[in-house]
Design brief:
Shape: elongated
Order of helices and strands: HHEHHHHE
Distance between the termini: 19 Å
Helix content: 40-55%
Largest sheet: 2 strands, antiparallel
Strand content: 5-15%
Radius of gyration: 21 Å
Number of strands: 2
Length: about 160
Amino acid sequence: MRCPKCGARIPRGSNVCFKCGTNTRQIKEASHQAVKEARANYEYDKIVLTTAFPSDLNYVKTLLMCIFLGLFGGHYFYVKRNIPGIIYLVITLVFLAFILIPGFVTGFAEGTMPIYTNPFLNFLFIVSCMAEAVIVVFWITDIIKVATKHFNVPVVLKEK
């Protein structure tokens, strides 16, 4: 296990991080619900990212959100990591707009791909396709991370 405060490796069987003194009990009893309160009070130094899922965060729900709503950043919004969630959401919505709007205009003619006569729109379409391809790669990586419990979730550690 890695220490969420300093990132040092905590040896198996040890109860304390030798680098910063964080107790493994603090990690196991960490609170995900307290993240919202800590952010509201601007106490960002209390929030740490850890791969150990806290007891007040549902692992199965996180995995299902990642699988079914991952392209829209649903799993990031669920674990209160909103900035990556917004990035996933915006890129996917822009990509869908470039795909669907020409389809509505042409009536979704069979076998047609959106072809933009304006070079700037064509460039934006290609950029949005490449950005969505990157998001798909990250989404698949996130599914693997959540499934293997290597996905970082923000928590507030229990006081000593």
